[in-house]
Amino acid sequence: MLNRRRVLTLGGLTVGGAAAGFLLPKGTPAHVQPLSDAHMGGQMAGMDMAGMLHHTGPLTPETTPPPVTPFTTAMPVSPVLRPAARSSTTDFYRLAIQPANVEIFPGTTTPALTYGGLFPGPTIRARTGRAVQITYTNGLSEVSNVHLHGGHTPQDSDGYSMDTFAPGASRTYRYPNLQQGATLWYHDHAMGFEADHLYRGLQGFYVLEDDVETPLRLPSGEFDVPIMVRDAHFDENAGWVSAFPRDTVLTNGKIQPYFRVAARKYRFRLLNAANDRLLKLNLNGTEMIRIGSDGGLLPTPVPETELSLASGERTDFVVDFGRFPVGKQLVLSDANAGPVLRFDVVRSAPDTSRVPDVLRPLPAMPPATVTRDITMSFDFTGATPVGLMNGKAFDPNRVDYQIKRGTTELWRIHNGDAAPLDHTFHVHLVQFRVVDRGGAPLLPVDAGRKDTVFVTAGNSVAVQATFGDYLGKYVFHCHFIEHSVMGMMGQIEIVP
């Protein structure tokens, strides 16, 4: 039986002691301090489990964040990072990992952890077949690393959880970009620190484009807009607090901003970058045409009036504002959090873009030669909850599965916990296909190539992947990041 008191500690847990000592890289402190201890007792006490886990419950804070008048701040679009140098095959970048004061609440600043002083970090736009090399310099007081989420990367550039670099040090990652165009993102993945580092701001878009998309004439240029949605909890001084529910939703780092659009079609690249949240977004009931998933374009466009995304998932969708008169305002709202962004139609504009009936074929998968069962769950028997994969907490010295390069496997992912403990599952290196939801119909978000999938309490999802490209060790884990930090992670090794 789930212990309510222990479940409620998940949001602000100090990771340390015997239960979590295995999580920390060698040479780091024996604990990771939570974001704010001062308010944890009062904020966590009395909250229902559903509210803590998925932010649907009442807020009972000891502190109140600064007030914000909705739709008075423009939604920023993160600038595209320019290469420091280019060769015939590669774009070279340099990017600092650094603390910075950022304006989340108008008129005041919040100390954040950033890439290049920006929250969200700068967008990196790359092309299939052209490599990217990024040298990061760690300006934090703690170890860091960087994971390209959804990237097919060599093991030494994956951002493997234990492969960190120290304060003041630099690390170069090389991304071959030998995969189809997709909306990816980069974020910290340093074992024991990743939940705190992501929560405080270490995340940014990596948009991979390819020549196959060009003749489709989808909206592009200034009409191709990345949107990062996530949440947080703040104190009266606009400081981060780790308590749940994380009641403030941020859209590209701002609270309930507006975005001015022309009366024409736009492509939006939507990312749920929250540590632990399920988004259900609607646009005044207006049709949103889903065109892409985690791993790139879908075979055909799918009209929807609600977009559902769990932490780590992405979707590309098109909205045709040409159906509305200049002056029209449409509000993108979450089913639980309410309004998160307002679109203001402010001008007319020519539009030669389109959404074709056929986007990108999805080839048939090779037959699976291996079937595995993987169960995500918590152990609540000790003083501290521990996350488990198949009954075991993560151990970097243990390889859970050896997989022969080039083979195709079917993984049945089980959520071994009772409601309301949902999980998301993410595996590094490969994209997969969702093929079953315990006999129930697949969800719209399951379509296409995926690297992250939502698994509700007590249920299962089957995914199929071909493990090609690179050798070495990679991890799979729950992408509700606090769950991962607490041990809900395993390790595969790709072998010849």
From TrEMBL:
Residues 98-211, 379-493 form the Plastocyanin-like domain. Its EC number is 1.16.3.4. The keyword Transferase does not apply. One of its GO terms (molecular function) is oxidoreductase activity. Transmembrane segments: none annotated. Keywords: Metal-binding, Oxidoreductase. The keyword Oxidoreductase applies. It catalyses: 4 Cu(+) + O2 + 4 H(+) = 4 Cu(2+) + 2 H2O. Monomer. Belongs to the multicopper oxidase family. This is Multicopper oxidase CueO. It comes from Amycolatopsis mongoliensis.
